[in-house]
Every structure is written in structure tokens, then in C-alpha cells.
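lol so apparently i was supposed to do this last week
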Amino acid sequence: MKDEYSARLISNRKLNEESSILTFFCPDIAVAAKPGQFVNISCSNLLKRPFGICSADPESGLFSIGVREVGEGTREIREFLPDRRVDVLGPLGNTFPIDDADRLIFVGGGTGVYPLFFALSQAVKRSIPAISVCGFRCVGDTCMIDEFRNCSDRFLVSTDNGDMGIHGNVLDALSGISDSELNQSTIITVGPEIMMKNVAEWAFDRGLPCFVSLERRMACGIGMCLVCTCKIKKVGSDDQFENKRCCADGPVFDAREVLW
Amino acid sequence: MVSIHTDVGSVSLASPLIIASGTCNFGRELSEYISFDRIGGICSKGLTLAPRAGNEGCRVAETPSGMLNSVGLQNPGVDYFIANDLAFMASLNTRVIVNVAGHCADDYIEMASRLNQHTDQIDAIELNLSCPNVKEGCMIIGSSPSQIRELVSNVRSVTSVPLWVKLTPNVTSIAQTALAAQEGGADAVVAINTLLGMAIDIRTRRPVLRNNTGGLSGPAIKPVALRMVNECYRVLDIPVIGCGGISNETDVLEFMIAGASAVEIGTSVLIHPTIPLQIAGNLEEYAEKNRIELSDIVGTLELWG
Ligand SMILES: Cc1cc2nc3c(=O)[nH]c(=O)nc-3n(C[C@H](O)[C@H](O)[C@H](O)COP(=O)(O)OP(=O)(O)OC[C@H]3O[C@@H](n4cnc5c(N)ncnc54)[C@H](O)[C@@H]3O)c2cc1C
Ligand SMILES: Cc1cc2nc3c(=O)[nH]c(=O)nc-3n(C[C@H](O)[C@H](O)[C@H](O)COP(=O)(O)O)c2cc1C
Ligand code: FES
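anyway here it is w/ flavin mononucleotide bound
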């Protein structure tokens, strides 16, 4: 049976003014977690908060999440102190199709870099060549840069204001990847919806498979309440759609199926 | 050994705890977290005659001690349910309650007659006369005692399955709508469905929910639900099932003292899927410690004079 776990917070490390990495001890989650999945974390508010899993290590029983402060719940979670016990549901949702890929290109923006880092770590373990492209607003906004640089075969970073890496967005960065590097690649992108949509179009134009991870407001996180639906095209149709559950049918979807 | 077994009319329940409609879909996901042998029953997601995609855009907003939802009865339709989900629900070793919602009175009658072909798998039909998230039927019918009376008696004539009428709190007098359900031939009433509410985003000056309004549930509505359960209990001869904001065994006991023969738990199952089993355990402990049958406390509330 699945359960709601009481995970112990091991460390809470600030990455920048807005973001932190929290590492929890919870063997059940650490053993089962796969890249693309998320956890639902409780705070003082009624509803749990969903976060993509950033790393998981079955041996040590640890898993981590990256949290950007955007409201009440994330503010409180960023202040959690080590040793605190936190109710967690997870791992939840489906996974990135990494193991089938010949080569991978990861494109992350904002908090999307956290779940992508888990995917990158898996690619490294499987010896699948991987290029990573991360976009941020400015240098003060960046996170996990060293981790991505160390694990990727090639790493590109862009900032909107140009104070680090390529001046522009992830599409500007992607234009620096040669056709031979793109050949046989699968694109996996997580970040703001408009970014994912643009990356999906870019991939489509080049005939490359592309997978996105959608974000919706959730309540249960496990497929029971239907508040988190996304419009997913019906097979063989361009305008007919079904409302699928982001939490249980996703959060990862083939970009060609998403009705943006 | 004392028992937490309870009856709602002719339907006997292993415990007073029923999983509320719309908060467990058809039970598959919840069955990965709990076994149902100590659960009184499970209500299906609200079904309509034809499949429904539900409402557009953002469907949930968190509010103080509660949440608003505007799912809008997304469901695969009653025929698909019968073909694909009913047998699964019936396999869960608990009572199966099928929640139905219509655009008009005829929809309810048609659905009840289709469900009547499967009486071996259905323990009760819950007439949802209270969904606030659809434009027709439901809450409109459920706000009018005369329409409730007529609808319930028409449905009564096409099915032998026990009929529970789920009432809306969005009325002036729930005692009147409850009485109308009883007069129409209902076997029990369920009080309450969600309260109509709104959440506003001050940055965009728009409602958070794409549907503008939604149904409020969770601990925030418990006092309203308790009051309404007691109002129903005092005027009815048929059993009352309490619902609204229940999240622990004390809440269950309060509802039973107010007059509920059983309770439905919704929002708190969404947040803690294992909570029904924890509550069942705690109720057993309570009954044991106080040497009572839980059903003995139903309606024992003494109002101040
Ligand atoms: C599958 C998934 C993975 C996510 N992964 C990450 C991650 O790795 N790192 C990270 O920092 N954030 C992530 N998010 C977003 C994160 O869940 C929200 O930022 C957080 O819930 C906001 O809570 P709050 O109380 O601070 O904000 P408030 O705005 O006060 O929250 C109010 C309500 O809206 C919900 N909500 C607000 N913003 C979002 C949002 N963007 N997505 C979903 N629900 C929202 C909250 O959960 C809460 O129910 C993810 C969201 C989803 C759905
Ligand atoms: C997400 C959600 C979906 C719901 N869907 C239905 C439904 O389909 N039919 C119905 O009769 N009630 C529905 N309800 C109402 C609940 O069954 C219950 O009456 C209400 O939420 C109050 O109980 P609670 O506070 O324990 O959640 C829904 C509630 C929620 C939160
Ligand atoms: S959050 Fe409940 S179904 Fe997705």
C-alpha cells in the first residue's frame, strides 16, 4: 500500500534570495522516485504544495526539492528547520522518458531546473549524452549552475538581461547548438508555460520529440479531485481535447498532445 | 467488543465513514492507500447522462481553512461508468453509493432507471440536487421544495434502490428542502454540499477561478454543516447523513450527536488519503473506552432552552 510519509528534514540550504534546496530523509520516497515525478509537501495551510523531485538516492534514503518563494506556503517551507518532520505524499505522477533516448537536450527555466537536474543525473548514470540549457532572469536568479555544468556534456546558460551567459532566452541559447548535435536528440523542457510552448515549437520545426512538464494548481495530487486538469489532444485530432489530470496522467506530456 | 457499525435506513455500514462524492473519483486511486473494510461506503464522482468535460481553466483556490472548487462535474457519463467503473467500486468491500446530477428532472429519472439494472452492485443512489458549479439542474432544482418533491417521487417510481438526496446549503431553509425530499420518498438526506463562494486575485482584479464562483468545502464550513444537520434531524423521520469539513473523530462525533446517522468525508480525504482509516481506529477506541455503540449517540444533542 502507498502511504503518507513523515519525512525528516535533513538540511535546508539557501541558493539565492528567493530559492532554497531542502533535503529530506524518507527511504520510501527516495527508493521509488523517478525523474519527472513530484512530491506533495504539507505546510500550515490546508492544501499541500507540489514540488518536482530534484534528487533521490536510494542508498542514503534522501531526496531533495528546490523551492522558490512565491507565496505563503513556499515562504513557510523555506523557513523549515532541520529535524522537522513534514507530511509528504509521493513520489507522484509520471516520468520523463529518458531511458529510451539516444541523446538528450534538457531545457529549463526558473524552477524547472530542479526536476530537470534529477533527469540529468539519471542520463549520466545511463551514459546517455546530454546537453543542458538553463534560462534565468538575471545572475541573482540563477541556481544549480555548477551542478548542471559538471554533469552535462555541454552546458549553456542564458539570462534575460545578459549579466550571465547568453543575452536572451533559452531559444537564443538553443540556436547555438549545431544540427549534428541535435540529430537523434529528445528534448525535455520544464519551466514557464510560454517557454515550454516556444521550445516545443522549436523542436517540432526540427522534427525532434519533445516532452514538457505542466504545472497546475492541485488539491489531492493523486488523481481523485479533478481540479488540476490540462487540455490534452484526443488521438488523431488537432482541436478536440480531453481534460487530463496534471497530477496523475502527467505532469509529463508529449508536447504534440498539449493544447496550449 | 463494542462496534462502530451503523445503519442508514436499510443500508448497514461497517462504520459511519463514507467517502464523499467528487473526492475519490471512483475509488481506484484511494484503494492504493487504504483498504475499505472499515469504511462505511464510497460515493462515486457526480455522474451525468452524457459525458462532461467540466469547467475551463483554474478550478481550485485555497481559502482560510477551506478550498473552493469549480470542477463542474467532469465525468465520463453514466453508461461509461456502468461499463468501466461500477464493478471496480463494487469490488471494494464497502457500500457503493452512486452520485447522479442532471440538467433537468428527466436526466435523473433516466439515470436512475439505467442504474436500476445493476441493483446487485449499488447500495444507494445519491441524488445530487446541490452542485453549485453547473448552470442548469442540480442546485436550481435543489433550491425549490416543490421541484425536489416532484423529482424525488418520479425517481422513486423507477428504482427500488435506496435514494439519498444531497442537499445544498445555499437556501434559506434547509429544513424545508429536507422535508420536501422526505415527502418525495427519499430514504435519507445528505447535508451538506458546498457553499457558493468566490476568491479574488488583487493583482489581476479577477476571480481566481475561471468559473468566477466555486463551492467552498473543508473545515471552514463545518459549523454551517453541523447547524444544518441538526435542523434536518429535528424535522425528519428519515436518517440524516452529515457532511462538511470533517477531519477527525471528534468532528464525526459532533455530527452524530447533532443527528447524523453517518457522515461523508471529502476535502480531508483529498489532503490525507489515509485519514478515513485513522478516524475509524480512533472511533473504535472511543467506543471501547466509553463502552457505547456509536449509533446510540445519534441525535443526543440537548439544545439550550
Ligand atoms: C507538478 C508541479 C511541480 C512543481 N515543482 C516546483 C519546484 O520544483 N520548485 C518550486 O519552487 N515550485 C514548484 N512548483 C510550484 C509550486 O507548487 C508553487 O509555487 C507553490 O504551490 C506555491 O505555494 P504558495 O503557498 O507559496 O503560493 P500561493 O500563491 O500563496 O498559493 C496559493 C495556492 O495556489 C497554489 N499555487 C500557487 N502557485 C502555483 C503554481 N505555480 N503551481 C501550482 N500551484 C500553485 C498553491 O499550491 C496553493 O494551493 C510545482 C508545481 C507543480 C504543479
Ligand atoms: C473537488 C470536489 C469535487 C466535488 N464533487 C462533487 C460531486 O461530483 N458531487 C457531489 O455531490 N458533491 C461533490 N463535492 C462536494 C463534496 O462531496 C462534499 O459535499 C463537500 O465537499 C463538503 O464536504 P467536505 O468539507 O468534507 O469536503 C465535491 C467537493 C470537492 C472538494
Ligand atoms: S490534484 Fe486532485 S486530481 Fe490532480
